[in-house]
Amino acid sequence: MTDILMVAIEALTAEDICDRQMGSKVLDTAMGDPASWMTDVPKLMRYIYKNIEGVSTEPAQHSLHSLLLLLTERCPREVVRSLLEISPTCDSAALAMWEVMISMPGTLWSVLTELRSVLQDLQLHKVFSCAMEDACISLLALLLLTDFGSEKCAALYKPKSFLRNPSWMMLSVVLESLITLSKAHMTEAAAATPVPPAGKLNGRLVLSGQSIFARVVFQGFTIRKLCFLQARKITVLLPDIMETMQDTNSDVKRKALLLFRNTMGHLDREEASPIALQLAEKLLPLFDEDPTPHISHADALAHRVLGVPVAEVPHPPPYQESSLVREFSISLFRDVMDTVVGRNKKMLRKTVKRVLVPLFLHMNDQSKSVAKASRDTLLDCAGFLGWRNLSTLVQTHQTHRIGECLLQQDRSRLEEQLCQSLLYVKDAQATLRLEAVRFTGLGARYLKNRSNKVEKLNEITKVLLPLMEDPDTCVKHLAFQTLYNLLIEFPRPQRSWWLLSCWICGSQRE
């Protein structure tokens, strides 16, 4: 039976869809009767390790991940020790397997329990330290110690701050473990081993990652629903995660956003308010997450966590991956507004005003879920600011009037709004470029009484001119019309404006 499973696992990497479906069917059937084949776990683990990076479709990944989770649930000792022996340096394939194994509350506890045995096994001690690294071990310890409050966790974490410059793979694993712990219902499990005095373990100070993890091991930990006290401990890590998620891939960003949402949901509003205020500034750049060519081997897990249905398609193209980050960051900003209280609410007003133009433009996002999240968040922004006119326009779907409303509502921010729209003129999405050109044309009309209007008009012209050759016909025509209208409305140009006039007139003749 083991040989049949190995053939089925290899079939999941096939290019032919029928072969992949047959492999999934064999695995699904075998998982209904695990007693008949769980006789050679190390051999199966090696075969999973060999093929996991070649499995590229979500249904196939779902079958393989389910098999690995079942193996971890039934044979945690053999699974953990086999993987540590297979990849002592913990390469990308091993990391993908670790992420699967810690993706469920029950298996997470089983893995940590078995790692306790590994630490106690002097023969495998060195192998374990190479595979997991201090950072991951320390984080798990910080989360699971029942006798360490948020103050002690902060004192333990801040001198090292290992999440400031982690590899994206390790950060992904760390976030996966945090997400697992933040799920609504957790399996409770406790050990009754006596605990050495806090700060020491067998006469040694608790300094290294392994010593921290050993304290968790001897402590006898309990994995529970993420409660208020656990959320407070996680807040120690959030500032570093905020900074790190700006410069990593979409897979990690999605996990970080989900973690922020879950953690703030478990805190009182008074305690979550300053975190939300800090997070608001970090979310704005994520509204414009660009497509990235990187595709993590843990993508299937991220899609499953985010609730994306499984379909028989290859990995989504980069723009779909980045759209998940845009949707989550925009929706999380909406939660931020609901979370802040007291003086933090007043301090947030400036940031809320800064997101209005990006939200308005993203109402035209090619991803329907991003467009809807943008509309819902813009509506909440209008309520937060007390702008009834904007609220009415959003509610009644009068999209063509929203841009004008934004310009009229706060004219002191005209130049900032124009700068924002000019950035979107270069966006990869034609729908956003089109709306950005339209908004820029509207905003330019309000420059008539500004002392620096010539400078700003030259800047607008410089950005819009390349769009005369835009691959999208609608963008090209609107850019031409916008430049022509500005030429008519500002009849006394300088030399550069005169040159533009000649160029447009030449284009009209052509």
- Mean pLDDT comes to 78
Straight-line N-to-C gap: 73 Å
Overall shape:
elongated
What share of residues are in beta strands? Answer: under 5%
Order of helices and strands: HHHHHHHHHHEEHHHHHHHHHHHHHHHH
Which strand order does the major sheet show?
A: 1-2
Helix amount? 55-70%
In this structure, how is the largest beta sheet organized?
2 strands, antiparallel
Number of helical regions? 26
Structural class: mainly alpha
Q: How much is the radius of gyration in Å?
A: 27 Å
Count of strand segments: 2
| Unreliable stretches covering 5 or more consecutive residues | 122-132, 184-226, 292-318
Quick recap:
The chain is mainly alpha-helical and 510 residues long. It contains 26 helices and two strands.
SSE topology:
Blueprint: H1 2-11, H2 17-30, H3 41-51, H4 58-74, H5 76-86, H6 92-101, H7 105-120, H8 125-144, H9 150-157, H10 168-181, E1 200-201, E2 204-205, H11 209-219, H12 228-234, H13 238-244, H14 250-266, H15 269-283, H16 299-305, H17 318-339, H18 343-362, H19 368-385, H20 388-395, H21 399-409, H22 414-424, H23 430-444, H24 453-464, H25 473-489, H26 495-509
Antiparallel strand pairs: 1-2
